[in-house]
């Protein structure tokens, strides 16, 4: 390519690059810088506070903070249950759609995508009210069948959130998997049918391996989303502060450290730690899922 | 592969109808007959899943038509009186119509922010897809790498930086971050690669068109579908945003709909004021623009969602 043309091409990306520096690199650098300092009250506590370099102390505190590590463990365990459940349901629905004619599939697809059109916060608000013993229809419905369920009890908070996320997420994940299924050459199915393979066999031995890439992708996106979960527990906390405390998830702790405790330095260190945890988790997931294809 | 992936597989039906005949010829059981039970199973599964998907929306619509006594005392699954207009009136007049203000804010942030962000993303995607310049790999790596950055890691320092230059609690604190959206850039690059041929650009250059002119009058025009998808997804993203507005917006006159509804729903535990009826009607209202937008532009976002995912 001609030299001048190269630079003109680069010029098209300049607004993004500038913005990226100011809105991504600079804040991250600032967070890392802040995480290395601590506020110390100077003198007898009369002269306000000054920031003092403290090395990796904030990180050490974070790694040994039972509240923070507990919240990380909590979301990791939740992700281990939630993501497979949601993806399996999405996969099954995508396979179901694939078994129908295009017209019928289109109709079901629209209905299954309705939750995706609803903003996450609104979805959480609606489900919280569905769960509510005062206004929700689920409690009387439970009574009818002899269940005495309380969706806000501490043992039920995660299942309640899980159901809400599943409801919100299956449509989107299903569409991605379904689109991948459409790319499978149809001749393969015909060949398998002629060989006497059952539809179940075709689904498990041809279709599922073919959409593996889509599953890995949706799994990766879900991991990133689950480890950062904030909106849903924050809205639950609005209703049941007794069962969802302010250190329920890592991002909730970071938010509270920054805005309620006024401890930006510690909050910065925790957000860097969370980024590292997210990076490691994504890397492990990628290695684990790409290894099996060899 | 992407374009084939998004077609709905119309080619399958004729082939499938030939299958039973072929099977009979080979003296094997008809797969159709064998899977008739399977077909019923599939339909039942899909009907149940659709009911699960639609049920909360159904309940929300019913709940928005009830007054407070109806909400608390009547059967949640069916209508009890018609108070939708009263509820709407209440939502729109509560605290001097603050709900309308939040709606306008949400439209402003999502509309203007996404428009600017889409333009920047299209230019960047074009630069990345159709030019070879030093540092191109690094820019693309930054785009993809930023998917992994937790929102808190960006938002908290951004809050501190914005408060130092006096932007916190102004619309700019929402608009500026929307201008840079790596996912939009990624999508835009994918779209440019799929729709803008190198030969066309060469031809335009030979005809003496300047690079800016090529971008604005050829590339942008050919990218209407791609651009609309990028815009739509960015709009939805900003409309749904919660952590960023919660962090950078303090006074309620700058809030978004999400923040406002969050605040209303928390009032009960906080001060004993029960706004449940307002929250539910407001929630229903806040879905309407999203639904209209998605239905009107479904052609775009269907391809957009799957395309970004499959590449």
CATH superfamily of chain A, by name, is MetI-like
Question: Strand portion of chain A, in percent?
Answer: under 5%
How many β strands of chain B by DSSP?
Answer: 0
Shape type of chain B: globular
Would you tell me the overall average pLDDT of chain B?
A: 82
The side-by-side strand order for the widest beta sheet of chain A comes to 1-2
What is the oligomeric state here? heterodimer
How confident overall, as mean pLDDT of chain A? 88
Alpha-carbon Rg of chain B, integer: 25 Å
Descriptive key words:
heterodimer, A: 294 residues, mainly alpha, MetI-like fold, two-stranded antiparallel ribbon, 14 helices, 2 strands, 3% strand, globular, B: 311 residues, 18 helices
Write the layout of secondary structure elements.
The complex is a heterodimer of chains A (294) and B (311).
Chain A: H1 3-12, H2 14-35, E1 37-41, E2 49-53, H3 57-63, H4 66-98, H5 102-113, H6 120-131, H7 138-144, H8 157-182, H9 186-194, H10 199-210, H11 212-227, H12 231-239, H13 250-259, H14 264-291
Antiparallel strand pairs in A: 1-2
Chain B: H1 2-6, H2 12-25, H3 31-34, H4 36-64, H5 68-73, H6 84-93, H7 98-130, H8 136-145, H9 151-164, H10 172-179, H11 182-195, H12 198-206, H13 211-222, H14 224-240, H15 243-248, H16 257-271, H17 276-296, H18 298-310
Helix pairs in contact in B: 4-17, 6-17, 7-10, 7-11, 7-14, 7-16, 8-11, 11-14, 14-18, 16-17
Description:
- The complex is a heterodimer of chains A (294) and B (311).
- With 294 residues, chain A is mainly alpha-helical.
- Chain A has one domain: MetI-like fold (Orthogonal Bundle).
- Chain A is built from 14 helices and two strands.
- In chain A, strands 1-2 form a two-stranded antiparallel ribbon.
- Chain A is globular and about 80 Å long.
- The two termini of chain A are 37 Å apart.
- With 311 residues, chain B is mainly alpha-helical.
- Chain B has a domain of 216 residues: MetI-like fold.
- In chain B, 77% of the residues lie in helices and 0% in strands.
- In chain B, helix 4 packs across helix 17, helix 8 packs across helix 11 and helix 16 packs antiparallel against helix 17.
């Amino acid at each position: 390519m001609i030299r001048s043309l190269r630079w003109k091409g680069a010029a098209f990306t300049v607004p993004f690059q500038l913005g990226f520096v100011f809105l991504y690199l600079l804040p991250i650098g600032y967070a890392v810088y802040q995480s290395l300092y601590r506020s110390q009250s100077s003198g007898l506590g009369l002269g306000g506070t000054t920031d003092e370099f403290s090395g990796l102390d904030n990180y050490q505190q974070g790694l040994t903070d039972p509240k923070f590590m507990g919240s990380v463990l909590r979301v990791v365990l939740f992700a281990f249950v939630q993501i497979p459940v949601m993806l399996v349901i999405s996969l099954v629905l995508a396979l179901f759609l694939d078994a129908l004619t295009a017209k019928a599939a289109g109709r079901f697809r629209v209905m299954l995508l309705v939750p995706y059109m609803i903003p996450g916060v609104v979805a959480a608000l609606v489900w919280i009210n569905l769960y509510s013993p005062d206004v929700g229809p689920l409690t009387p419905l439970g009574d009818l069948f002899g269940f005495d369920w309380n969706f806000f009890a501490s043992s039920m908070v995660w299942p309640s959130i899980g159901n809400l996320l599943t409801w919100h997420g299956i449509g989107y994940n299903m569409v991605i998997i379904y689109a991948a299924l459409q790319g499978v050459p149809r001749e393969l199915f015909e060949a398998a049918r002629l060989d006497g393979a059952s539809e179940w066999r075709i689904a498990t031995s041809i279709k599922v391996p073919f959409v593996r890439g889509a599953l890995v992708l949706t799994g990766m996106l879900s991991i990133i989303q689950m480890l950062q979960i904030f909106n849903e527990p924050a809205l639950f906390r609005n209703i049941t502060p007794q069962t969802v405390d302010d250190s329920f998830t890592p991002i909730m702790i970071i938010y509270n450290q920054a805005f309620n405790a006024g401890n930006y330095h510690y909050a910065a260190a925790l957000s860097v730690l969370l980024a590292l945890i997210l990076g490691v988790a994504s890397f492990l997931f990628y290695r684990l899922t790409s290894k099996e294809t060899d | 592969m992407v374009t084939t992936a998004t077609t709905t597989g119309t080619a399958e039906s004729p082939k499938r109808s030939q299958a039973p005949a072929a099977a009979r010829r080979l003296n094997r059981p008809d797969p159709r007959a064998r899977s008739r039970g399977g077909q019923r199973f599939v339909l039942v599964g899909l009907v149940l899943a659709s009911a699960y998907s639609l049920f909360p929306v159904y309940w929300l619509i019913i709940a928005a038509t009830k007054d407070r006594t109806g909400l608390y005392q009547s059967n949640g699954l069916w209508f009890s009186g018609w108070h939708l207009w009263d509820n709407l009136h209440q939502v729109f007049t509560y605290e001097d119509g603050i709900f309308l203000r939040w709606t306008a804010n949400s439209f402003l942030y999502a509309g203007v922010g996404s428009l600017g962000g889409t333009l920047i993303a299209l230019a960047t995607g074009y630069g990345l897809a159709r030019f070879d310049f030093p540092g191109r790999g690094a820019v693309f790596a930054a785009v993809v790498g930023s998917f992994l950055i937790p929102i808190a890691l960006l938002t908290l320092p951004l809050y501190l930086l914005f408060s130092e230059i006096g932007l916190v609690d102004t619309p700019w604190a929402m608009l500026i971050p929307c201008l840079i959206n790596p996912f939009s850039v990624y999508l835009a690059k994918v779209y440019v690669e799929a729709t803008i041929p190198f030969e066309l650009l060469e031809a335009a250059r030979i005809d003496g068109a300047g690079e800016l002119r090529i971008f604005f009058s050829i590339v942008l025009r050919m990218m209407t579908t791609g651009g609309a998808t990028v815009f739509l997804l960015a709009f939805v993203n900003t409309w749904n945003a919660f952590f960023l507005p919660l962090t950078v917006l303090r006074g309620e006159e700058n809030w978004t709909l999400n923040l406002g509804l969050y605040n209303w729903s928390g009032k009960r535990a906080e001060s004993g004021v029960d706004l449940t009826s307002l929250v539910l009607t407001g929630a229903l209202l806040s879905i309407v623009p999203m639904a209209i937008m998605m239905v009107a532009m479904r052609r775009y976002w269907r391809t957009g969602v799957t395309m970004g995912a499959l590449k």
